[in-house]
Amino acid sequence: MTHEGWLKEAIKLATTSVMNNQGGPFGAIVVKNGQIVGQGNNQVTSTSDPTAHAEVVAIRNACANIGSHQLTGCTIYSSCEPCPMCLGAIYWSRPDKVYFAATRLEAAASGFDDALIYNEIEKPPEKRIIPFHHIGLAESKQPFDVWGSNTGRIDY
Amino acid sequence: MTHEGWLKEAIKLATTSVMNNQGGPFGAIVVKNGQIVGQGNNQVTSTSDPTAHAEVVAIRNACANIGSHQLTGCTIYSSCEPCPMCLGAIYWSRPDKVYFAATRLEAAASGFDDALIYNEIEKPPEKRIIPFHHIGLAESKQPFDVWGSNTGRIDY
Questions:
Q1: Interface of B with A in 56-95 (CB under 8 A)
Q2: pTM over cut 0.90
Q3: How far is residue A41 CA from its own chain's centroid?
Q4: A120 is catalytic
């Protein structure tokens, strides 16, 4: 299967997602060694879960199937350019690469906030539309100290 | 309860997360009208889910409790500055505001990639450490067209 072929499969998932009223028009597939190891479509409104974007659902599905929190050796095919949440999920799951069909601007033209969020990230936290306030506390570093001294910890 | 008080509760969740070997040193709480409506701690390694960061777990928990994919009127308290994935999840769930204790630089000092991912976002997609390749197809816009003509769609 070519990259274009896998992308067409992701686009089919995106279209089916809308036709089944599961959520937004997005689909994603995780491929390893020429085989699908995970897939997902947007399920935000049908599951009341704002994090249930296609890529997140596909990554969680692939990790459950593989039994690992890492997608080493995998390629993710998405019907649309990943939003910042999904970009972050991709970095934390560490696949080899990503291919996408539609762009963030095409998503924005259909009413999705991807481009807005990309712009918000670069603002000072307290100046964002949703303000992020930093309050440093004496206890702030305590969890990291406990983590550092936990010899049984599993890094990720 | 003061903002500092809620942050201390989130920090307690972060420390407990490590001591129980559930995952990384992070905790988050969702508060509405002075009451906790959702909470979470990092569970990446214990659930093999790279998206199970404290904020994502707390948002999913709050949305399940409230029965909505939106956190209007809520405040999120996190033991640490949200990573880009969690920032995206926050924007999609639309709480009123966010308070955090430790910063992304303090997280990076303990080996967490938050700051790296913030830097990666601003790069051209194909130049990232994990390359994001755009392949425009004739079918790219089809899911958005189906979405636009679906009068029964639920916007989010």
A1: 56, 59-60, 63-64, 66-71, 79-95
A2: yes
A3: 11
A4: no
